[in-house]
Amino acid sequence: MKIAIIGAGLAGLSCALTLEKHGHSADIFEKQRSVGFDLTIAELITPILHSPIDDFIKFLSESHGIHLKPTSNIQRIHVHSPNETAYVEGNLGFINMRGNHKEAYEKQLAEQLTASPIHNQHVTPKEISKDYTHVVVATGEPLDTQQFQPFHIEFKSTFAGAVVNGNFIRNEVHAWFDTELAPKGMLYLLPHSDSEATLVLVYPQYDDQSVQDKKKLWKESVKRVSQTLGQELSTKEDLSIRDYVVGKCDYPRIGNIFFAGNCMGAIKPFLGFGQTGSILSGIYAAQDLCGLGDYDKLCKPLFKDYQNSLRYRKTIEKLSNDQLDLVTKSLRVNAVERVFTGENWGLLKVLSHLLRPFS
Q1: Do residues 229 and 172 touch, judged by C-beta distance below 8 A?
Q2: What are the structural domain ranges in the chain?
Q3: Coil, strand or helix: which one is 77?
Q4: How far apart, in whole angstroms, are the C-alpha atoms of residue 134 and residue 278?
Q5: Residue 51: is its pLDDT beyond 80?
Q6: What is the pLDDT of residue 353?
Q7: Of 78, 276, 310, which Cα lies nearest the Cα of 204?
Q8: Architecture of domain 3-358 in CATH?
Q9: How far apart are CA 73 and CA 45, in angstroms?
């Protein structure tokens, strides 16, 4: 068996690492000059997105021998709507770095590999298929999937953000939902030190929102966050992304070609994070290659999570600011808070009750 992996992101590196742990090797092709991407950004891994796994970092270490070191754990998530604020607390997951940061998860995975990715190599599955028995497509580009099968695009997103300086509590995350500030989207702040955090505004590019003034929304976002936190924030390392695709393919595997990460459909539409799905899809592809499972069957729970996440996103997108205030206010009810902080809880289960009147 001669295996090629296209893309040295979370999915591709997780696949390569799992293959090595079972005695196999792969050639890893990466079109960029190094592992990771050019931006510095914090993201989160939380059981909100991958229930019933309470601790994904522990799960990866104990079940798959993949060891990741987060920047910090999350003890409290603050939710802000236009006129209400609430929070939930407990062991709510982890904050980690991505991209070109020295502690980015991509770099941590690469350090655990014996083999080194082949950098500055832009290849396509069709170009290399004659030289390899199996190819794993993990480029993060849905267009690479569309060469072989439909990739169903639910929406494209616009991101505006920056690394900001201020005074932060490292274990506390903030999220704002406001139809005027983040139309059908959200604004979130993830600290990665006591004085530095990632602040991101993200919203979908539907036809009626394609003309949104991103600069104006971003300016208002920084103002709102400063007011909420009671401090002035200074920004650096701006990030700007447009046409970021959220969607999924029909078939995780076609013949001896595997589609992993964003090429499969790892991004959860509800909050827009895809780290858990990317890592798991890479592991599952390697397990299939090692004769330890069937990739199509292993990916079914990922597709189910995707559909559930999409359903709740569509419901929240319909809410007015007054309705967002009602949902936020309900988070302060003790019974609801206990559901969040109990074992095997999941935000989607809670939302199924909170959003039922609006569905």
Answers
A1: no
A2: 3-358
A3: strand
A4: 19
A5: no
A6: 56
A7: 310
A8: 3-Layer(bba) Sandwich (3.50)
A9: 9
